[in-house]
Structure prediction request, 328 residues.
Amino acid sequence: MTPDTLALNVFDTKTGQKMSTSNDVYHSLTDLILKDSVSWPKTISNFAKKDLEEQGNRVLAFGPGHGSGSMASLTAQLVEGAGVNVIAAETCSVGQPVAAGRSSSSFVLTLSQIFASTLPPCVRSWSSEHGPRIDANGQVETAYTRLTGRPPILVAGMTPTTSFNGGKLVAVCANAGYQVELAAGGLPRKNIFRDHVVELSNQLQPGAGFAINLLYLNAKQWGFQFPMIPQLVAEGLPIESITVAAGVPTRERGSEILAALRDCGIRYVSFKPGSKTSILDVIRIAEDNPDMGIVVQWTGGRGGGHHSFEDMHEPILQTYGHLRSGET
Prediction:
């Protein structure tokens, strides 16, 4: 049997490569079953990285095992964050995610549902849900652009660049149509904070707006700056959002903050977690407030440890599936 007679791609469970390089498929399969060791992480990771477009985004796991000790659970952990739905093909009804302590990327379906013409709505395509696309005007469209109504670029707040002496820069960026933050960390007095927000607002063209970056860890400044946001919005100043920087509030406090902003008409809020744990804390706040748009700004610790001492990539890789599913 030669590779060109295969109706589906078959992967070598030792190397993770397609068996298209094998001259004799039967001989190779016999070696894999009876002689060679299995490297399942290499096999499934190679599939997720290289063959998602060709193979689709679903893996059917026919066992062995059940629950957290099953092949479906193991596979789900290996493809976490890749947008692959791992389906435990067991003869029971559609239920909760496989008990693997992971986000909801594995589901238990009946065999009849697996072979139906359409899969249940719980089986999701992250590529179609979250992938960038080009809109009717030829512009890049993402979840961020749909939420903010701005291009997929953020001019982040930073003292002193977009703070005490940075009003003109913030105004230029806002008038050009971008989402930009005024850094409130460099505005340490109530009158200074108000004066700069008003001065910035007076420089904006109709339709332009801005966000304000507030330092949650600075209790003194947060204590007078945050209560002023609803007041300033009520006065007609074009504050579109705030960013809760330098610390993530508790779940309860986070909901109180969002409630106050929701009441004054702000539709979305950004958080700047500095670790895997705080990323999950933000997701929990989002779970409690499904009607509020939540943006996660991740910087990591490669910028000199600014608000984080974590690696740039590892915490995002560990929480990517949770961020996509919105569940912890």
